[in-house]
Amino acid sequence: MAVGSRYLLLGLSFMVSTISVKACVSAVEATVPKELKAGYIISEVNLQHCLNSTHLELTTSDADFAIQQDGLLYAVHSTRIHSGERAFVIWLQDQQSHQKWKIDVTLSVEHNTVKREVTLKRSKRRWRPLPFSIRENELGPFPKEVQQIQSDSSQNYNVVYRIYGQGVELPPVGLFSVVPDTGMLKVHRAVDREEIAEYKFFAEAISLDGIKRDRDLDVTVKVEDENDNRPEFAKIIVISVPEHSAIDTIVGQVNATDRDAPDTLFSQVAYRIVSNTDLFRIQSETGVVYTMSTALDREVNKDTYELIIEAIDCKGVSYGLSGTGTVKVVLTDINDNPPTFRAKKYEAKVEENKKDVLLLRIPVDDKDVVNTSNWKAKFVIKKGNENGNFRIETDPVTNEGLLYVNKALDYEKNAVVNLEVAAENEAPLVGARSNWASIPVDINVTNVDEGPEFKTANLFLRVKENEPNGTLIGTYSALDPDTKNSDGILYYKASDPASWIDVDENTGKLLVAGNMDRESSFVTNGMYNITVNAVDRSSKTGTGTVVIYLEDENDNNPVITNKDLTICEHYGQLGYAKVEAVDKDDKPFSSPFTFGFPKNNDQNWKITNVEATSMRLQQATELPTGTYKVPVIIHDQQGKSEQQTVTVRICKCNNGQCLSSPISTAFGVWGILALLLALALLLLLLCILLTCLCGKKKEKIDIDNGAEAVLIKSNTEGPGEEVMASNFRIAAKQTAFEQQSQFQQLPGGGLQDIKLSDFQKASNGYGGEILDGGMWNGPSSFLSPANSTMQNNYGQQFGDGAQHYVDQNSTSIWRTNGLVIEKKLNGFLTEHDDRFAEDISHVYGFEGKGSLAGSVGCCSELNYNSGLEFVNTLGPKFRTLAQVCRKK
Q: Is the pLDDT of residue 871 over 80?
């Protein structure tokens, strides 16, 4: 079924195409009156099957006729059939497929009035948007009938007609009206096409009951043009042409405008020149102006011409309207006039040896336009300036030539210099009858007394470096320009940066005076320069330069440029470092170098990857981290060498950088020195303090004011002689001995016969004891900071002399602290990590006001904080300090 449907559709399509081609009209013949008014309906052409009738573009080859989309053929303008027959073509074009179709139309003049009436009757019956026209500037009387409109609904209803839109109630208001019963349109005054070329309004048909009986008709009224406007020119028309142009050179184009309908005879203009017809002509149709003579000379005649040009419409016919305008023709300048000199010859005078001196101002005249390239002069020295002694410039204001001495002149060589100077323009010369002008200029050189002159301004010498002093390397002499000899001339050095040359005052001989080293900073590209002055009897001076080229010798050894090397340690790999060398000598006394080791080397290193000026120093065996001194011998091409030493540091690296040791990282060299200095000062202070305490046995110390005798924390982690545990032990024993002797020597009795053992017994009675070193360990009630029970207890037990014992005992605080630290040091050396469980808290009585550390004396109260709690929490890291302090 699908195949059958497809064939059926194709058959229908073919049928439709065939029908459309056959049904489309190819020719139309109609009979019309000899005179046709605008809007006259000629025929209704059937366009239903012509191409795509919904997208047709309809045109006619005759502008007096038009056809609508529904096929209605009508007259656009009022026209006459002159020869009894008129033919034209209707073109149909499909806007989508761009296909075209032609319909031939033949109009014959009718001779039967009946047919004409039928045609007119048919037109009245139609409600069509028929365009029609009225003439502008019509004479009265007004109103005038224009055209009658009628709706098909009038056959069935009694209708009245109304109009609205432009020209009715919209501006221009009241121009058109309609007779309601008949539909006759009227115009009420004359119209001007140049103001409004077309009017559009609408008509409606309404029955007596007020109901619209048809769609509104859109009415178009075109205004027929009359030749009522003259051609007009712009106010000022300026055109230009170069002077001396050839005949028929285009000067420019003029254009006149006409307000009448475009593309009609009324707006087609023709031109003609009224004045200066001997020099210029104009093309009638286009308005292009041409030259008719070569005598247009801006400098001789004039540079501006005024032309009166007339423009006539209707292609210039006699009854056409005309208008005139003024056209200004400007002759543009060309460089047809060369500069001319005001004199035939010029002279000037100048002293020898002077330069950059203005000698002469040379004026010129030029007829071309001022301050243009055709007028601006350019001076050229044609002859006499082969040595470049002169230069000539142009004054931009006066256009004069300025002649200068560029290089000093020599009277002895040329007393008179003859120049030839030409004057040109910046623009090339065009159409001139003469060439650039030139004149002679004579320069007279006057003689002056001159200084000596060296035979050559620059003397070049080749000398080997390191020549011995006194070696003659050349002679630099000068002559007097006037006498042409060297009599009376003396020679002096003006410049010798390194003081390498001596100049003989009388002869100008050049002698070596110092070690001439080619590698010196005074030498550039192997050359060394000195300046020599020659002075005559009149103190006139001449100056010359000696350029000494130093020849190289092999007087420099290759030198290593990087003697401090670093090799990053990599497990299982042999590292290397690149060694680079340089030789100040030039080739063949320098690179390529030969690298090697002395005979007694340690075989730990080898040389690889040798290049012209470098090599790799590589480990021959795996070496531990550290710093190594490696001797290296480098030979140049001639075998000259010396032994040098490079320092190689093998280290562990991070991102190519050596990792420093903890001490160096934290402190550095100066930090360690500062730390040791502080430690030494601290030990010295301890020694002085102990000495003072031991020397004053009977000094009474106020216990309440002993806040300064506390243990001071220190971050010093290095060993010292004064803080060793053994020193504390000796000091503690000595204190105990001194206390025993003191008890026997106390004045006042009571305690002088008491021995240390008795004191111990007595103290035991109070529940306390004297520890090794004189430290007192007793009940907490023995000493109280609040009621000073220490003195009362001692007084009751031992008498008044016990007060001195207590005072003396307060001076041993530092010794007591030493015993505690010694015990802790021994514990860290012998015990394990679980030793902290054996530590107990020791509380001592308060000693001093405001003391943060509290009392650590032998008579301290057990319940009071001793200030040594930090010793119990030092941690495992304190073992290192203990080992350092106990090291023998």
A: no
